[in-house]
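## Example pair
The file below holds two records. Each record gives the amino-acid sequence first, followed by its structure token line.
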Amino acid sequence: MPVLTVRITDKEKAILSRRARREGMKPSQLVRQMIAEEPFVTAADVLADFEKRLKKTRKVRRA
């Protein structure tokens, strides 16, 4: 099985862990599910998808 290594910050790792917990699975399972949803051709495609998903989890606070 090919191995994909992605470096993420501690903050991104925490976000991934929280989301995986909400989905009821391990972080690695969640990542595999995300990758299986849409075919990626290049690493740039993976990063673009990650940024799109990260924006969905951010909440805007207004004073």
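Second record, same layout:
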Amino acid sequence: MKIFDSFKAMLQVKKPTLDQMEASVASAEQAVASLRSQMEELEGRRRDLLIASDTERARHKQAISTTADQLADAELYLATLRERLALVQQETAEAERAARYAAALSARADAGKRLAKIYPQLVSQFVDLMEEMARADAAVDAANVDLPKGRTPLARTEAAMLYPRREREVLGERIERLWIADGMSRPLEDQRAVRQTGTDIGLVKLDDPCDNPLWNTRPLVLARLRSFRRIEYLPAEAVTQMPAGIAGNVQLPAMFEGSACWGYYLSGGRIVDPQEVLAEVAAVRRLPRARSVSTEDHIAAVVEFELIDDPAEQSAA
């Protein structure tokens, strides 16, 4: 069979690729399956040939013998090719392991050079910063013990970074009479939608009753005219907008292995698994970067309505 020539040629290749061996094994499997099918068909015709001529019977027996011989060769080729495939798979896996090992050595060398160059400076800067913060916090604690008149206690350095740059600045305030539906805490957006039915009482249809499920069963909702305090203000802002996802203090490892603090430190906890470190780093990088808020930043004014609950003040309004 011609296909046997390809099997023989493949076995003579000194360094076949994994793809070549897999293709040859697949071809050998197909050849074995085809010859087995032919053998089954030939064996099934034996009974029919009991009454055939001697010539036909001899021809049939010769076909069985030839097919059986080809099947035996094909099965032997298949077994040999499978053994060779196993060796190639082992060699390929070993080559991949060697490549990963070499890549790891290279990556470690590059990281080590950067560590030796940058890390001592980074640790020095971090230690200096911690010392400066500690001295500042000690001064804050001392000042808080005996405060000047009219002054409030000071927050420590880290907490002060999250404190407002300025208090809320009220731009204007006035009293307004507005319609409010029963069950709501804020005035109706469309004041003209209310149909007044009496003194300070009316009915309104709400298209989106998500705030109160009872409105689903009522086509019209009772509305009342109430007094609200309308406040327009500039909201307070932080000095620095820090990434909200970083919790706890970031600690840096020592420079030598075996130290009690050797390893990666993130989010206040010790992490020694590199995959955990990569996941933590990726999470931090997805957060908004810290940025200083300048006094020139545009701050949009906010308008809020406060319902006047005091009956006397409500009547006076």
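Notes on the second record: Residues 54-145 form the longest helix (92 residues). Helices lie at 2-12, 18-44, 54-145, 157-160, 274-286, 311-316.
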